[in-house]
Amino acid sequence: MKAAVRKWEAVREFARGLPEAAIEFPWGPEDCVVKVNKKIFVFLGSADGPQAPGLSVKLKDEALHGHAMTAPGAEPTGYGLGRAGWVSVPLGEKGAPPLDVLCEWVEESYRTVALKRHLKELDARRETGPGARNEATG
């Protein structure tokens, strides 16, 4: 469970680092979400409960959505959100997705609600960030 909590914390920090993203607790301290433009792009819940933490993201891209649904324990998000492409993924399951895949899903979910200026800033970071050199040099 410690590995799941560390992964959850890393995902939270990644999400918080996206342009103009903000962590909020709209339903109390056990219900962490990350928003941009006043819209939730990732539900994180809490890492302090008796169960291993998880996350929910909105994946409109069919390939990413399908991939997320193959994760151990993954299911359409409750409250009717699953019909809109939201997927809930537990992080404590054996074979849970690695951090880089989770961050890819969080970024995709962010892109579904972010404004064009947010996306422009995010893309500019990618072009000038440390990863840009690695991709260019292969």
Summarize the structure.
The chain is α+β, with helices and mostly antiparallel strands and 138 residues long. The chain is 43% helix and 20% strand.
Structure description:
By secondary structure, the chain is α+β, with helices and mostly antiparallel strands. The protein contains five helices and six strands. It has helices at about 1-15, 60-70, 100-115, 115-130, 130-135, and strands at about 20-25, 30-35, 40-45, 55-60, 75, 85-90. A six-stranded antiparallel sheet has the order 1-2-3-4-6-5. β1 (about 20-25) and β2 (about 30-35) form a beta hairpin. α1 packs parallel to α3. The longest helix is centred in the first third of the chain and has 15 residues, at about 1-15. The chain is globular and about 40 Å long. The protein starts with a helix and ends with a helix. The model is unreliable at about 130-138 (pLDDT under 50).
Structural descriptors:
6 strands, 138 residues, disordered C terminus, alpha+beta, 6-stranded antiparallel β-sheet, 5 helices
Topology:
Elements: H1 2-16, E1 22-24, E2 32-36, E3 39-45, E4 54-58, H2 62-69, E5 75-76, E6 86-90, H3 99-113, H4 116-128, H5 130-137
Antiparallel strand pairs: 1-2, 2-3, 3-4, 4-6, 5-6
Helix content: 40-55%
Main structural class: alpha+beta
Shape assignment = globular
> Which sheet architecture does the biggest sheet show?
6 strands, antiparallel
Mean pLDDT: 91
| N-to-C CA distance | 35 Å
Can you count the beta strands? 6
Order of helices and strands: HEEEEHEEHHH
Write out the strand line-up for the largest beta sheet, numbering strands in chain order. Answer: 1-2-3-4-6-5
Secondary structure tally, helices: 5
Strand percentage: 15-25%
